[in-house]
Specification:
six-stranded mixed β-sheet, Rossmann fold, about 20% strand, binds alpha-L-arabinofuranose, single chain, alpha/beta, 2 domains, about 45% helix, disordered N terminus, six-stranded parallel β-sheet
Length: about 325
C-alpha cells in the first residue's frame, strides 16, 4: 500500500513537471484553437515596451512588431512605456480592462508589478515577461524570456581578467569607471552583480566611479563628462550598454583622451550592436558582450504552446556571444541591428 502511494506521488510529480499551464486557456473551447489555426480569429496581444532609450531597444521593438503581425493572426496593441514605470503599470491595467488574450511586458524596473499581475491572473489573462524581470511571485505570470544578465557581467569582467593577465598587468592597480544602466532594472542589477563577482576577487582592482546613465547615449556622455571634470584617474571604462559607451567615447574625445587598443583606456560594453562591432574591429571598443534583442520568436512560441493547452517552461534564456577583435569580423555583415 505504502509502495503504491509513493509510486502514485512520483507519477503525479512527474506529470505536474515544473512548467506553467494556463488554466484559463485550458478552459477555452477547442473551436478557438481551430479558429486561430485557420486564421478566422485573431489573437489579441498587448505589448508594453520600456521606451526608446537605446538602439538595442529599437531592435527589440521592431522584432516584436515584425513577429506579431496581422498576416500571422495577431492583433498587436503596442504601448511605448516612455521610460516611465508607472505608465507601464497603468498600461497593463488598461489591457486587462480591454480583456486582451495575452500581455507581454518588457519591464523598466523589477518592482511595482505584484498587484497588476494578480489582477491579470484573476481575469485569466496570461502575462509573458520579456527582456528584464519582475519582482513578482512566479505563479502570477506564464513565463519569462530574456538574457542572463549576471553571466553577461561575469563574462565582461572575466575578459578583463584574462586581458590583464596576458599583458602581465595582473598585479597592477586597476582603476575602473562603471556606467550603470537604470536603477532597479534587471539588466543593471544582473550585470553589476556579475561584474562584481570577479572584481571582488582582485584586491588591486578599484571602482573609482560608479553612476547610472539610464542606458542612453546622452546620459552616458553626461556622466563621463562629469567624471572627467572631477579629474578622476582611470584605466578601464565599463558601460552597461553600447549607447552609453558611445556617449562616454564622445566625452573622452572632447577632452582629448584616447581610448581602446594601444591606449591607456580599456573599453568594455554590452549589447553588441552593429555600430559597436565596427568599433571593436577598429579597436576603439575592446569588447562588447552580446545581449540578444531578438526574443519575439521565443515569446510567440510560448503563446502558441499556451493556445494549444501545452505546459511551458517558466524560464527561457537566449543564446549570447562575447565579441572581441578575434571573432567579430565574421559577424559584422550579418548583424541586423
Ligand atoms: O534590458 C536590456 C538593456 O536595455 C540593453 O542592454 C539596453 O541597451 C537596453 O536599453
Amino acid at each position: 500500500m505504502k509502495k503504491f502511494f509513493i509510486f502514485g506521488l512520483l507519477a503525479a510529480i512527474l506529470l505536474w513537471g515544473c512548467g506553467y499551464k494556463d488554466e484559463a486557456a485550458e478552459k477555452k473551447p477547442l473551436v478557438r484553437a481551430e479558429a486561430v489555426d485557420t486564421g478566422t480569429v485573431l489573437i489579441t496581444v498587448g505589448f508594453i515596451q520600456t521606451g526608446k532609450e537605446s538602439d538595442w531597444r529599437d531592435a527589440n521593438t521592431n522584432d516584436f512588431l515584425q513577429t506579431f503581425t496581422r498576416e500571422k493572426g495577431y492583433n498587436l496593441i503596442y504601448i511605448d512605456g516612455n521610460s516611465d514605470p508607472e505608465r507601464q503599470v497603468k498600461a497593463a491595467y488598461d489591457l486587462i480592462a480591454q480583456n486582451v488574450d495575452y500581455i507581454i511586458i518588457d519591464p523598466i524596473v523589477e518592482d511595482g508589478w505584484e498587484d497588476v499581475f494578480m489582477e491579470a491572473k484573476e481575469k485569466g489573462i496570461p502575462v509573458i515577461v520579456s527582456d528584464r524581470q519582475v519582482n513578482v511571485n512566479a505563479s502570477h505570470y506564464a513565463c519569462w524570456v530574456g538574457s542572463d544578465f549576471y553571466k553577461e557581467g561575469q563574462n565582461a569582467a572575466k575578459w578583463l581578467e584574462k586581458y590583464l593577465e596576458d599583458k602581465g598587468r595582473e598585479k597592477e592597480e586597476i582603476k575602473i569607471v562603471l556606467l550603470e544602466g537604470t536603477d532597479g532594472a534587471t539588466a543593471t542589477r544582473g550585470r553589476t552583480e556579475g561584474l562584481y563577482s570577479v572584481i571582488d576577487k582582485h584586491s588591486n582592482w578599484k571602482v573609482v566611479a560608479k553612476e547610472y546613465g539610464n542606458f542612453t547615449q546622452g546620459e552616458g556622455a553626461q556622466v563621463m563628462e562629469g567624471i572627467l571634470n572631477q579629474k578622476i584617474e582611470f584605466d578601464v571604462v565599463i558601460a552597461e550598454n553600447d549607447n552609453m559607451m558611445f556617449g562616454a567615447m564622445n566625452a573622452m574625445e572632447q577632452q582629448g583622451i584616447a581610448y581602446g587598443v594601444g591606449t591607456d583606456v580599456i573599453t568594455i560594453s554590452f549589447d553588441a550592436l552593429q555600430e559597436a562591432l565596427a568599433k571593436v574591429i577598429k579597436g576603439e571598443l575592446m569588447v562588447t558582450v552580446e545581449c540578444n534583442p531578438l526574443i519575439a520568436g521565443l515569446t510567440e512560441k510560448a503563446i502558441l504552446d499556451l493556445e494549444k493547452g501545452k505546459r511551458i517552461e517558466k524560464v527561457h534564456f537566449v543564446k549570447e556571444t562575447v565579441f572581441t577583435q578575434e571573432n567579430t569580423v565574421l559577424h559584422l555583415m550579418e548583424r541586423k541591428y
